[in-house]
Amino acid sequence: MKSLSGFSAYWLDYLREHSRPLTRICHYIQTSLGGLALLAILYFQAWIYLLALLPAIFIFALCVHLFIEGNKPAAADHPFWWSVVNDIRMLCHMLTGTLARELEKAGVARSWV
After folding, report:
1. Are the CB atoms for 28 and 87 separated by under 8 Å?
2. pTM of the model
3. pLDDT band at 112, cuts 50/70/90?
4. pLDDT tens-digit readout, 51-85
5. Do 93 and 12 form a contact (C-beta atoms < 8 A)?
6. In the chain, domain spans
7. Using only C-alpha atoms, what is the Rg of the chain?
8. Are 27 and 17 in contact (CB under 8 A)?
9. CB atoms within 10 A of CB 97
């Protein structure tokens, strides 16, 4: 695993690993549904479902990366929470209209998402 000092530099690598619009769309869906599921688990105190939520999210991301992006999920080489934080960060940038600027910084071709 990479050192924690590399977290701030990891953002641009993360964006390059999510260069295709469909990959990012799938991650937006994954992040949104995962967040809603986590809120439901917390609200209903159904802790056992946490055991299913994390593998489900990881398997979904693995399939997206293998079949759409053609790479492996970033969580395979970095701490898992780095990817979770950057999934949320990417979704927030998309929702605020600032993702195109971030993709440009990372050298990712301009796209519609």
Report:
1. no
2. 0.89
3. low
4. 999 899 989 999 999 999 999 887 778 888 999 99
5. no
6. 19-106
7. 14
8. no
9. 8
